[in-house]
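look at this stuff:

>
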Amino acid sequence: MTSERAKAKSPKSLSGLLPFLRPYRGRIALAGFFLVMAAVSTLVFPLALRSLIDGGLVNGDTGAAGKGGQLMALRNHFFELFGVAAALGLFSAGRFYMVSWLGERVTADLRNAVYGHVLKQSPQFFETTQTGEVLSRLTGDTTLVQTVVGSSLSMGLRNMVMGIGAIGMLVYTNPYLMLQIVGALILIVAPTVIFGRRVRKLSRASQDRVADSSAIAAEVLNAIPVVQSYAAEGREAERFNQSSTKAFNVAIRRSLARTVLVAFIIIATSAALLWGLYQGTQAVMRGDITAGHLGQTVVYVIILASASAVLGETYGDLLRAAGATERLMELLDSASPIRSPANPTPAPLIEAGSAVEFDAVSFNYPSRPLQSALGNFSMRVTPGETVAIVGPSGAGKSTVFQLLLRFYDPQSGRIALDGVATRDMALSELRQRVGIVPQDAVIFSSSALENIRYGKPDATDDEVKAAATAAFADEFIQRLPEGYDTFLGERGVRLSGGQRQRIAIARAMLKNSPLLLLDEATSALDAESERMVQAALESAMKGRTTLVVAHRLATVQQADRILVLDHGQLVEQGTHTELVARGGVYARLAALQFTS
């Protein structure tokens, strides 16, 4: 994914930003106008200075009347200089505002595009990409892009225009000498470009190491109770310190390389320009040019030298932004293998629940290609039926749910919902038909009301409270400090495991989908809460199809049918009584649980 981009010349990597700049062509053109006019105002200043020196000072009449005329001339020349300065200030202010707006807008668009794209990736993407790395790209890399688009790029273009203009004026006034200097400047550019490639590679490596540190921090902070329970704070701090040290070492190498690059540009350019200035002073002494001409030349030389220095700094910023753009474009270029078809097939909505069909499905997780998660698995569930899926750990129970939600596609076989293959359905329609209560209830950093409403964003407060009541969550929510408006904390840290689970159940019940998936939905509840929630689930399961995954067989005895999986194979199916009488895998599991 990165090889082609890694081989590209450094500034070209910024071409990935073009789609984000095109919508603002008008503003870019206006910013370009202000930029050029500010550069032109700067280039006009030496001409006004030459006019002041030659016309107002050197050649003025020294008589009484002449002195009055000379003062008037000086006043006019100073007004001209002030007019140039005022124009420079206004055009510079306009340029600054426009490029700042562009930097903020393009960065926001880029961040939104990357985040929205990542949200659409399948779980396969997150098997190989750490969340902390994605966050680093969303924050650190976009900040670098903002610096370039909103500042460095415009400064670079402005100084490029000024530098070219200064060279043009110097060549026009001293053609033979300045052509020599231009030739020397061209010789300076070649090693600058070659050395700049190394700076870019180090910039990319530095950003990668920072992303590694972010990934470690995100992982540890999300598991802080476990870290503290194992008294591993010191170990984790040391691991983060080692990662930060690596990032620091690479950053220092990058800074050193960039320092050498900037020093080379400034010293080499200044040497060439000082040679031209020396020749100019000799020309004044010989009478070939006037003092005003020399003053004009000096200012143009200063403009050219400062422009070269700024361009050296800007080039370094562009190299860093090129590395950041590469990393962001990698995320945008990553194509999810799970996508909605171009012409999705609509599925009929069955009032009594959904029909589910697995036909000879075989599946291996991408991260474990040699280990079969499901092998030649077939299952048919009629509308309104409650089917339990049981088996030992690693048997493939949760895999059935992941394939049904189309987080992955099987290597072979067919999965259908209401008679339509899930591959042929729009992902939004497929997932809208399915409600799920996962084993690990996910609570967002918002209120209890909004957490339940996540299942149906347009639900009224009364509908939310009705779902909470049905899930036996209303009572404990009412006891919270602010009731339904209580902030539940990150990942629901203010709630017990059973309370989090009941919030998740209320969310699924509010969604009111024709197919309900219960993945160990009562595993975190105590005996009393389990009885309450079990009653709520039985009510919720009426009129819809329900698939239940459970290790605790006591929760599935009343299912219409029980499927027994072992090592990805369907080995038994029937009712609880039939399977116990058969004396197979289910009977052994039941004997272990009920005996204990």
Remarks:
- DSSP finds 19 helices and ten strands in the chain.
